[in-house]
Amino acid sequence: METAAAIKENREREQLRRIFNRTATKLEADIKVENFSQVLIDIEFLKSKVERLEALDKMIQDLMLESDSYDEESFSIEIDTADTYKYRWHTINNQIKTGMSSKIPLDKIEDVKPARNYNLPKYELKKFDDNLKNWLAYWGQFKKIDEDHSLSGEDKYQYLLQSLKEDSNARVLVESFPPSAENYTKAIEQLKARFGREDLLIQVYVRELLSLVLNNNKKQVSIRLLYDKISTYLMSLETLGIVKQKYEIILYPLVESAIPETILIAWNRCNTDPSLGNQLTSLLNFLKNEVETEERINLARSDFNCIGTNHTLHRQQISSLPTAASLVSNIKPKESGKVVNVICCFCDKSNHSSFECSRANKMSLEDKKEAIKKKGCCYICLKKGHMANKCKSFFRCLSCEKRHYVILYPEIHKKEKSGTLENVSLCARTNMTTLLQTLIVNITYQRKIKKVRVLLDSGSQRSYVKAKVVEELGLHETGIEIIGHTLFGGVDQPAKVYKCFDVLVSSLDNRFSVRINALQQSDLCGHLPKINNEKILEKLRDLNIVISDFDYTDTEISLLIGSDYLGSIIHNETVSLGNNLMAVNTKLGWTLQGPIKVQSTVNTSSTTCFSKTNLSDLWSIELLGIRDPYENKSKKDTVVEILKTFNDNISVNAQGRYEVSLLWKEGCAGLKTNYEAAFKRLESTTKKLKSTGNLKMYDQVLQDWKKNDIIERVINDTNTGHYLPHHSVIKLSSMTTRVRPVFDASTKDNNGWTLNGCLDKGINMIELLPKLLIQFRKGAYGVISDIKQAFLQISIAEKDRDYLKFLWWENIETCNELVAYRHKRVVFGITCSPFLLSATIMYHLSKYSEKYRKTVNKLKKCFYVDNCVASFDNVDEMNIFISESKEIMAKGMFDLRGWVTAPHRIDSIVEVPVLGMTWNTILDNLRCNVNISEARSEKITKRYVIAVAQHIFDPLGLVCPATLIPKLIMQKIWEHNIDWDHEIPEELAQEFKIWLSKAHFINQCLFPRHISIAPLEKCQTSLHIFCDASLTSFAACLFLRTKLNEQVKVQLVLAKNRVTPAKRKMSLPRLELMGALIATRLYKEVLESRLLTKCKEYKVYFWTDSAVVLSWLKRQAHWKPFVSNRVIEICSTTNRDDWYHLPGEYNPSDLPSRGCDAKKLMESRWWEGPAWLKLNEKD
């Protein structure tokens, strides 16, 4: 019973029962005094709580019945307790009915109503639009219909549909239920579960109060509007059980912070009531009076038509400018009698908080999350006692503004996750850095002496000692203090508990010592530079000034002395060393402060990896065609907004060329210079080009660009701004450009920002691949072409060109004089470039949709970035398409060239690449192109296994049975927690070698490009979708069956398999259900590919060998959430009657659910479907 779900539901039920008892007691008292106006209000509130209580009772009782530790006596107690609450509820209901009927006789109620001689306006239902803020108002209105017993369930269902906004998620959810009285109740339950959850609604209104606080300093809001909003949010929270009296200590500061400054000053002047109990009510009454006063003034002015200057009250803003102080302490007195015990969830120590754990800084993000989950802590505040969805903490990450500590910021771990080998080269160059006041001192405790590096920081109000020093010396604890920090920029960190220690600090010569009280901190600051300039050191020697921090090996700061003790340490003696560099004498020794030139090393990393895609790309490819529909909808909404912005900004320049702007993210900080990194990469690229003899060819490409106005020289470049490092890509197999520059927009500037990080990607183009390839396999004749230098045909707006600069040589013979260029066209290598090209092509095509309607419609569906991929059922139609396509694209200065067709080919090319696959134009078949020999290695490491798995690009899943094996091995490697470059266990290595020895057979798996026996509209067509699961994976595959004149052809269209989650063990029936879910999504992907648009009639069959899954799909019952959610999605896309059972031995999806080697796959010819599928339907 003690599962996470059971614990969560028990806690919620306990809270609801407390609310029930409190409200029921109040109701009983009101009934006695016949206060029925209040009774009617409270009974509605209590009714919603009872409904949720009954639902929780049922869920908990179901969990008890299914538990392995089921106890009959405990279950009996549970039933009796639940019945007690039900009995009290019915008793109160009966008391209300009896009391109200005695007060107003039932037969007289109609007589009491006054006569009405006028027509009321038409009553329209308020439509719900998915906005959680509107739920309470919506449900308050619709509840009258829901509780109207004179209406049938079918009528209520129709009213429910009418009250939901078109295309809203709520409407989609309700429409997934077939209209019936029984399904109306289910639909209401689902709506309440998704939109009417009290915990979510409470968060919504608290966040709205927070938004008022955040917007307070941004824009002026009228006091009337502010009062209305605050009152609305507070009343909504009160409806949800957050009563002002109980939660005033939280709500009062929020409301007070939302008030404009001048009103707040007035409030504090008139606030004479010191008691906290009625502060919030007093503040609301004050605001109400202010609103009434303002409205009376406006009324007086408008009534007397005052003419004259409208004197606007210019409020003097009291600025709170943040200083350079890194630590501002707000000390709260220690609460008497309370011992604060803080345990870190990462290392189980009590001397620091979880979010400042030094051990956690060395952990991966996944390991941190696992540690948090294991300790039962909240992902937001890292404390025990609640989960993230119940967390009341208001702070946000300083890096991404999301609700978590910086220690869980994903960007910190990206480099660790990359799984790439880095060759780091160093380049010594003159640079500037700033020295802070650091020196070396001795810390003494009970005859133990430790030499440490100390920072003198006048910007900190307190002194701090590193936890490591406390542990090594065993320093004496003097107490604890609660400190709140304000970081640079005015960002407040939540207060936390610090231990205080007595620290004796002395100079190295023991001439001076001082005892300070320091707070313990796990890490004080990052790396601080030391003096390494020989000229300055010689000057210091001449002045007889000894810098203790010069040759000390430890670079960590172990002690920070703040302003609380600096006055007793610093002398007034300073020596100027020029250029704002000062030597400052202290009683602990000399320190340096100010800017200095140093010989720094510029780290430039060149990444070497076996594959062109990283690990996240590998999983993205696995999800092609089977992503969650809600995730897809969210992405589509984002793309719609980006497209709108794009269409508003696109233009045609004087050359007749389309001109676009980069897709900048909102709130992205300005990029700083990365000149050093760009220069080093230029040196590396030049060296490589010289060694391969391609320098002149590379330079010729750039000179051609300059001649063709693709790039332009930057006049008087100051070595500032953002530069794009570049390198060469040599592709000898290319039919056009053999050597071309590729630009890197992921290089960080001096602030750690990258150009790609500041730009929106737009649509993820790779998700279009399955649909395009299915279209390519539809017609009898395949056609491909591409746009010549497509990206370079689109101009970049002038305002964005300074972010696209790059370095090259004035003369490649000497390579000693630099010159800066900047791009005038879209750059290949920038994250938004594929989207800019695709969006420009779509914009261009829309201009010619009337004149070339058929061709334009075809072109819109067959472009993947700069590649055109299509198929046709006859040669004439194909030739018209080629001719008109060239003409249309030429009007936008796009040269559509390199046409290849088959089986009647125009050229003599045998094999050509098509969207990651290889097309044999003679045999008209497709295959996955695998060259494992590129990645051969004697040492089998985790990095190597992933690199090999990435080599097999299979967007349609045609060879997914063979690619499952390395995925299963990768999962086992992850369970062993092996480092990237360590050899994997011998057992796994042997299993991988056996699979690898047969992987080359994937190249021999040849798939017909054309998947039907004839044009689909002439055939008897049916789709057959199979699903299956094993304990290690689940899978689905979709076959097209076409029949013409007793000839039958069956071909695999799409298939996918997924490895079962390692951390969440599922039963086999649930895995089978996951297979059915994938089958549904494959079917939806094929429908969206428009494969069957010309078919007047076709049949659909879904096949599973699981009787349990079939019962879940066929029966309309109340299943558990996991089953229910997936059944709802499956039945919203498919027809229940289209699902059939077949014996396991006839199920072709058994192969991808278990996996096999490539040789077995080739011999099985799995892609041709099961033999029984080629028989007549009657057989």
Biggest sheet, in brief?
6 strands, mixed, barrel
Strand order, sheet with most strands: 3-4-11-5-10-9
Mean pLDDT: 79
Q: How large is the count of helical segments? A: 34
Radius of gyration, taken over Cα atoms and rounded to an integer in Å: 36 Å
Shape: globular
Uncertain runs are 104-118, 301-340, 413-430, 599-614
| Content-based structural category | alpha+beta
Per DSSP E runs of 2 or more residues, the count of β-strands stands at: 35
Q: Tally the structural domains.
A: 7
Describe the structure in your own words:
The chain is α+β, with helices and mostly antiparallel strands and 1179 residues long. It has seven domains: 4-112, Methane Monooxygenase Hydroxylase, Chain G, domain 1; 132-196, no CATH class; 200-298, no CATH class; 335-419, no CATH class; 437-575, Beta Barrel (Cathepsin D, subunit A, domain 1); 668-923, no CATH class; 932-1174, no CATH class. Helix content is 39%, strand content 18%. A hairpin with a 3-residue loop joins strand 7 (486-487) and strand 8. It is globular and about 105 Å long. Mean pLDDT is 79; it is low at 104-118, 301-340, 413-430 and 599-614. Pfam families: DUF1759 (PF03564), Peptidase_A17 (PF05380).
